[in-house]
Amino acid sequence: MALLALLGSSTAWACELEVTGFARETIPGQSMSAAYLHLRNDCEAARTLVEVTAQGMDVSIHETREVDGRVQMRALKQLVVPASGIVRMAPGGLHLMLEGAALKAGQALDVVLKFADGESQTVALAVEKIGAGKHHHHH
Ligand SMILES: [Cu+2]
């Protein structure tokens, strides 16, 4: 009993991130879309996002960067949300790439965030219309 209590006290209490965000409607004829999250970490430890999943599509964490005047996207293996920190995804920067998506404005999209510590968290994202002329990237 004493040993169990000791082990228990050394394990950090699971602390959930505060996550909000939205996904973009799929452009007719395309199967690619993107979602943007705001991840706020009020926990005492950094949290490392290692995988994002959603039913019926492939999700990857992407970063858009300008390299030598060219806009490029690269996939990130993980995304660290620092302790007491915020990570903001936004068009032209960090985003979730949704492949095989068929999303319509007004729907909700559940995404599951998986962390390096084995915890996972489900977040419901509103699907929003794409504003005219706001396409932020092409594949
Ligand atoms: Cu992308």
TrEMBL record:
What Pfam families does UniProt report for this protein, alphabetically?
A: PCuAC
Q: Which domain of life is it from?
A: Bacteria
Against InterPro entries, the record matches this protein to: LpqE-like, Lxx211020-like, PCuAC_sf
The protein's matches in PANTHER family, at most eight in alphabetical order, are given as:
BLR7088 PROTEIN (PTHR36302), COPPER CHAPERONE PCU(A)C (PTHR36302:SF1)
What is this protein's record name? Answer: Copper chaperone PCu(A)C
Give the species. Biformimicrobium ophioploci
